[in-house]
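Lab notebook: predicted structure, single chain.

Context: the supervisor wants predicted structures on file for every construct in the current expression panel, including those that have not yet been purified. This is the next one on the list. No modifications to the sequence; it matches the entry in the shared construct table.
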Amino acid sequence: MAVPKKRRRARLPFAGVVGWFGKAFFFIYALIMNAVDLVFGPLQRRFGFRNMAYLFLLPNLAIFGIFVLFPMLLNIFYSGTGGTALFPQDRTWVGLDNYRQIFSCGNYLDPNSCREDFFWRAASNTVVFVVFQVGGMVLLAMITAVILNRKIAMRGFFRSVYFYPVLLSPVVVGLIWKWILQRFGLLNGVLGNFGYDPILFLIETPWPTFWVILISIWAQMGFYALILLAGLQSIPPVLYEAGEIDGTSRWQGFRHITLPLLIPTLFVVLVLSLIRAVQVFDQVYVLTGGGPGTSTKYMVQYIYETGFANQIPRRGLASAASVLLGGVLLLATLVQLWLERKTQVD
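Prediction complete. Output recorded below exactly as produced.
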C-alpha cells in the first residue's frame, strides 16, 4: 500500500522578502541604538539618570533663546536707540525719547492732538477690532460647539466643515475675500442680478471694518469651537441626567451645569483669541492694505510700516511701539488668568 506523500505548506512568494526586510530593519535599528548608546551612555553615567532630562531640553532651549529670547531683548535695546542705521553698534542711544514721542499728546482720545497720531489711530482701531472680533467669535464659537455637541445628522461632516477655514493661510483668506468683495467681485455680481448698484465694500466706510471683523471671525472660529467642543465633551453626562430628573430646562442646564464647568476652557479661548486678535496683520494687509485712509490700520501694521516700509525707517520708534504692545498683551493675559483663578475659587 502506497504511503501518501506529505504535502508541503505553500509558501507565499513575498514571505522571503518580508523576512529579509524585517532582518534588515532590526539590524539598522540595533546599529542606531548602539551608536546612540555610545554617545549618551557616558553622559548618563556622568550626569545621572534624573539630570538627563535637562540635557534633552537643551536643543529646545537653545532654539528658544536664539529665535525668541534674543530678538526680544534686542528689540528692547532698539527701543532706546535712534537713527536709521540697522546694526546695533551703529545706532545712537536716546533712552526713553521714543516712548516720550509716542505719549506726547494733548488728548489721548483725539489722535490729531498727538505727535504720533498714526500710532494712536492704530491703537484705537485695534481696540475696536479686539472688542468686536473676540466677543463675536467667542459667542459664535460657543453656539457652534453646543450645536455640534448634540446628536445631529452628519455631525462629523459639519465639524470638519467649520474647521476647514482654519487650515487656510491668512493670506489666502484675504485674497479669496478680496475677490468676493471688490467692486466687480462675486458679491457685487450677485447683487447686480437683482438690480442693485455695485457697493464699494473695501472702500466706503464702515464696510471695510465690518468685513475685516467678520472675515477674521469666519477664518478662526472653527479652531476655538473645537476647543470648546472638547470642553463640552469632558462634562459628565450624569450631571445632565440628574438635571433632567430635577426638571431643569435646557437653558437652566446650560446656565447652571455647562457654563460653570466650561469656564476654564472659556478662559483659554479668551486668552488665545485676544493674543491673536491684537497681532492681526497679514489677512487685513492683503484685504484692505489698512485703508481706506487709516480705518483698518492696526498696531502690527503700524509697527511694520514705521520700522521697515517707510522711506526713512524709524526702527527705534517701531521697537518702542512693539514693546508697548507686548506689555499690554502680557498685562491683559495676567488679568485674565487672575480672573480665572478667582472664578474657580468662588
